[in-house]
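assembly run, all chains below
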Amino acid sequence: MEIKLTYAETLSREPRKWISTLVIVLICVLLFSWSGSALQSNSTGGSGLSVAKGIISGILHPTPSLLLTLGDDGVPYLLFETVAIAFLGTLVGAVLSIPFAFLGASNIVPKPVALVIRLMVMAIRTIPAFVYGLMFIMVTGPGAFAGLLTMSTCSIGMLSKMFTESIEELDRGILESLDASGCNTFDKIRYGILPQLMPSFSSTLIYRFDMNLRDASVLGLVGAGGIGSPLMFAMNSYRWNDVGAILLGLIILVLIVEWVSNRLRTKLMRG
Amino acid sequence: MKSDNLSLYDRLFKPRTYTLEDGKQIQEKRSRLPLVLIILLIATVVSGELTGFSFSTLVKRINYFFVILRDMIPPDWAYMPRVWQPLMDTIKMSLLGSLIGAVLCIPFSVLCASNLIRTKLVTGFFKLFYSIVRTLPTLVIALIATYIFGLGTFAGTVAIAVFTFAYCGKILYEQIETADMGSHEALEALGMGRISAIRYAIWPQVLPQFISTVLFCFEGNVRYASILGYVGAGGLGLILNERIGWMEYARVGMILLALFVTVVIIESISSYLRSKLA
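ok done. output:
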């Protein structure tokens, strides 16, 4: 049966969702007004503005000597060290997270095991970076090595989560057809699993490398090498021009790496 | 394929030629894998050298890693009442920071979207702006914020807002750029203004994904907010740093446990909401 409706009648038949909308809005407003009470700060006594001015002028006038020397304490060397930490940290993190990824994939292990492993990964992720930093300094002493290990531990969470997702998306059909054509287990892994996982794994790794480079400044807090410690020292002693030089170097480096990694990843995605 | 079309790599390593049954010849390019592996190997060796990576140290001294961890278990339950306040501060900071950042990024993302703004200069400028904000490490922003706004949760909120702004903004403008422009054009053809056409054609398309992104960001922010205290920006990090300084690891364990439970709860709520949105 077809009913002819005028526009006004169609409009009036629109489902009335205003109650649920109202409830959601109310909950949101309540939550946000509750969180508004967190806005306390110990006032800096009007020095905030001058500090802001100092920061901006420092970033606009970076110390050229710091930016251009190639010595041990120059920005280029520190950046190079940071890249090395991020690179090896990502690699070690990948090695560490592969077992977690396979054990957390619900199409490989039984569901309860996968759940326990996922909770474990979550726990690993929850411990803040500087706590890991302290733990690893007890192992290796302060320096780039500790930073590397911290970085790899911090990468486990995201890496194993993304790896698990791509493992769960594995196409079983390919494995079955390889089985049917008489391939052994090694062949199945080589021709059935690796080609399916490699693009997404390497894309994840490149992305994580990008992130690790950015997070490298966190390591400076615990004296774990890279550009972080000089940056924090400079900030704590209000040497804004040095801060500007280091930040400028970091920004340029990250922009370049981001550009390269985006191109590599689109290439990987297209196959 | 003519040989002058080949890239340098293919000219160095000639493609393998097969002859098919019908006498046709086809070429398979050599795999890039060996080249990539060699580059990765060199990079690994160089960075291993530079960072002083040593397996023997790691194997010999790895048990020291668990020294602090062992001290954390069992956690000091009696300390829990003193954890509540900073924990709530952390949640509030990330809630408010996420909201401010998410609202602020909407106009900027519209200015970034090349399908809404025709001037390349404008979109390019705002995209670069986003990239630069994204490169600034959150801790550095938090530290600068504590200098400007004083110690306390406000500085942390600002840092989280900036981070959320950059992260959600980038994803939002990418979504706007891939949105279907048909309805937007139709509304403009009906004589609607720019803003209302965006409001009624683009906004409903990107809204669910955007809310999902913001929720995801909020999850991460709770975790991040707990670190911010390290530079004096309020929240759990503050007492965490204090207790670590006093080497009271049982209390550190309590703080981390509380954080873990909170994160698990928030993540399950938010992933439930996100599955509803999808």
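Chain A has one domain: 64-270.

The mean pLDDT of chain A is 83.

not gonna interpret more than that til we talk
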